[in-house]
Amino acid sequence: MSNSLKGIDLNLLVTLDALLIEHNVTRAAERLHLSQPGVSVQLSRLRELFGDPLLLPGPRGMRPTARADGLREPLRQALAALQQVVAPSNPFDPALANQSWRVAAFDYGALTILVPALEMLRAAAPAARLAIVQSLPSQVARKAEQGDIDLAFMTGAEAPLDLHRRTLFTERYVLAGRAGHPHLQSPPSLATFCQLDHVIVSPEGGGFHGATDTVLAEQGMTRRVSLSVPGFLLLGAVLTSTDLVAMVPRRLVCGNDALQVVEPPLDVPGFEMLMLWPERVHRDQAHQWLREHIARSV
């Protein structure tokens, strides 16, 4: 990038614009609410800057040189663009918004946070667009700062520390299986729980150990984990079509008539679900509106 603007007082360009409009130092000074000697000093600096007299004495005031005539329109456009940059932004109007937001969420965050927010989002900002993408927790902060992600939903345990955060809710685990499951007509004992065939969600793929297994190990016990799946959507299909059971976040199965849900016989710590965003959009009015809208929807 050129450094031709380095050291230039931008007020000089405002003065030049006034001089090219008025062709008179006194009238330019009045337009700028400056003294006539002050504008004369600035004109001298402008002549030195451009290496051109810019304005020459004439019979009816001052007349611009060819260089000054060539500067007139691009200078006016540049000052107008600069004014737009520094002017206060208009209040965000979701009804007129056409933003496209990229949101990082695995299926649990999408199902429990974004799906409930979609109807209100579509009604309030019909021309806005939302892209739901997946990103490994270790990559979220970098992608957010680079502009690849505008918002992310993660658990407190995996959320990067260098992003802004807001807790949306605290989740707890329940035991779920298909409706009519013979061992879930009432909460099972811990011994029965361990003998059931379990399915576990492993977002990284292929894992057979989770928070439940950590709690069991502290009590010297283990359970039978027969299946590992990469996401909660597949988990739901497995639970409704087999006798496998799973420890699942309550929000995923609450109100699902196809599943039998009971309290587990052991206390597995829940988790906080966070909304995360980078500093680059922290004060953006549209992004603030999106965050508040989502927070109200959960």
Automatic annotation (TrEMBL):
Q: What is this protein called?
A: LysR family transcriptional regulator
Task: Using the record's annotation, list all stretches that form the HTH lysR-type domain.
Answer: 8-65
SUPFAM superfamilies attached to this UniProt entry = Periplasmic binding protein-like II, Winged helix' DNA-binding domain
- Which superkingdom does the taxonomy of this entry point to? Bacteria
Recorded family membership: Belongs to the LysR transcriptional regulatory family.
Name the source organism. Answer: Chimaeribacter californicus
User: One GO molecular function term?
Assistant: DNA-binding transcription factor activity
Q: Which UniProt keywords apply?
A: DNA-binding, Transcription, Transcription regulation
